[in-house]
Specification:
The protein has a single domain, classed as Calycin beta-barrel core domain (Lipocalin, Beta Barrel). It contains one helix and eight strands, in the order αββββββββ. It is rod-shaped and about 100 Å long.
Amino acid sequence: MKARIFLLLGMVFLFASCEEESNDLTDYRDDVVGSYFGISVYTCWQDTIVGYSHDTTDVIVNIAKEEEDSLIRLSFYQSTSSSFSFKYINGNCISCITFHAPVLKIQNDSLYFKHQPGLGPYWDECFAKKVE
């Protein structure tokens, strides 16, 4: 009988002294979320004499977290607003678009984006730096 009481008291003491685990998990997407400012370069083929032409504009890029999974949304604020979704896993951005997928690279506070929406010789590139 005494053994059972000591066992019961030991179990109560053991469970009462355990600490609850903290669930202070940080979202790894917080490192890249925010506003970026830079330039957007539209490149297209003109002809065999001129070759490629380039048109440059200022651009504001906003990266926001999506509610589900590990998705981030890249939104451009310029003359034509567009947005793209990427999976952000282990520091890599994987496009959610299958065909003619855009490329997004984020390193430290710099952003590079390239999208060639079709088969023709034209594409958009964006070079931006994070706004503090």
